[in-house]
Amino acid sequence: QVRPVESGGGLVQAGESLTLLCEISQPAINTITVGWFRGGRYEFVAHIKANGVDTAYADSVKGRFTISRDDAKNTVSLEMKNLKPEDTAVYYCNYGGFWGRGTQVTVSS
Questions:
Q1: Which partner from 6, 69, 85, 105 sits 20 to 30 angstroms from 26, CA to CA?
Q2: Nearest-angstrom CA–CA distance, 94 and 82
Q3: What is the band of 1 on the pLDDT scale with cuts at 50, 70, 90?
């Protein structure tokens, strides 16, 4: 097992969208739960379970963020719409205790 790799962060204005990508070389993502977290305290954002159906979101992002995965590419995406300045953070991908290095999302007002 190796650490996941995040990408897709950037600087956007409030109301705009970004999609983050988490690439996992192994294991197959249909065998694990993959989550997104943010900030220095690793605030939970969303996760998707091994069955690919069960998902969960933090209250602060419900209705704005959508987590999904591509089993063929072994990747998990986090689509973020209607971004707010309070969404500004480093976003991390996690599975089984393995953390990526994060990708910075900055939302200007």
A1: 105
A2: 24
A3: low
